[in-house]
Each structure stands twice: as C-alpha cells, then as structure tokens.
Design brief:
The chain is mostly helical and 182 residues long. The protein is 77% helix and 0% strand. The protein is built from seven helices and no strands. The protein starts with a helix and ends in a 5-residue tail after the last helix.
C-alpha cells in the first residue's frame, strides 16, 4: 500500500471509531442496556469519578497488555498502535456522550426506537472499522490473541470474554447499587 492508501484507511478507521462511539452513547441514553464491552465502562463510570471514555481507555489498555502477555514473542509491535485507537475511541466516547446528553427519554417505546437506532449506528461504525483493515480495537485483538494461543476458533474466546464482561458488569452494578436483585 502507498501512503495515500494508508491515510485513507486510517481516516476511515477514525471516522468509524467516532460513529461507533456515537452508537455507544445513544445506547446509554436509551437505558435499555448496551454491549458488554461498553457497559462495563458505563457502570464503572457511575461508581467512580472517571468518565466512561477514561474507563474505556483503561480497560482497553489492559486488553492490550493481556495480548502482550498471551502472545509474548508472537505479539507484533505494530499492534501497539491499538493504544492510539483506544485513546481516540475513549475521547470520542466522552465527546459523543456530551453530544447526546440532552436526550432524556422516559417513554419506553421511544427508548426502544433509540436502542434500535443505536444498534444500527454501532453496526455502521464497526463496519467502517473493519473495512479500514488497519487496526482493531483491543477487545477483538484480545479475542484473536487467545484463539491464536489456544489454536481454537475465535468464537469460543469471544463467548468467554463476553461472559466475563457480563459477570463483571453485574458485579460492579450490584456493588454500586447495593442491591443484588438489580
């Protein structure tokens, strides 16, 4: 690839990250749940004096560190560029939350419509990220690292990470609310 193609692809990636963050922000405003990888930072931001974007950066940085630990010598140093994508995505998450902060819907039917719209926005953002074909966010990178090391299908690793994130979210949600029935 030439430099012009790289610039185009990274621009596409950055645009995709912004659209993805907007979808995440919309899903939080719908208050009907979100993807496990986004909901853990959301719940933690309710219990700690950090923004959702900051917690996203911290969590994704941990995912990169886990990739290095799992892959060791097989870790490609170019994947450290995930740190830049992580930082951009975290900043975009906070910006998107600010942009949609005025949305406060109480009607359940309208919240469902917003949730469906947020899903479509997330899909569009992920599609742009994948089409850019230069980097992935650390959650996917961690899944690929686990599946590469275990020499298994990445779906098993994805399901395991999803379960871990769901359990973590429930734990933190219950811890912050003081109510185990939440």
């Amino acid at each position: 690839m030439n430099i012009k193609e790289y610039v185009k692809r990274y621009f596409y990636l950055i645009a995709g990250l912004f659209i993805l963050s907007l979808g995440v922000a919309l899903s939080t405003r719908a208050r009907l749940g979100a993807s496990p990888i986004s909901y853990v930072p959301y719940v933690l931001s309710l219990g700690f004096p950090l923004t959702m974007g900051t917690i996203t950066i911290i969590m994704h940085t941990i995912f990169i560190a886990l990739q290095v630990i799992i892959l060791r010598r097989d870790f490609n140093p170019v994947q450290l560029l995930q740190l830049i994508a992580t930082f951009i995505f975290g900043v975009f998450t906070d910006l998107s939350l600010f942009i949609v902060s005025g949305i406060n819907i109480e009607n359940i039917a309208t919240r469902w419509i917003l949730c469906i719209i947020s899903c479509m926005v997330v899909v569009f953002g992920v599609n742009m990220e994948v089409k850019a074909d230069v980097l992935m966010l650390p959650g996917e990178g961690l899944i690929l690292a686990i599946s590469k090391k275990q020499r298994r299908n990445s779906e098993n690793a994805k399901q395991a990470l999803t379960v871990l994130l769901c359990v973590s979210e429930r734990f933190f949600h219950c811890s912050f609310s003081g109510n185990l029935t939440v």
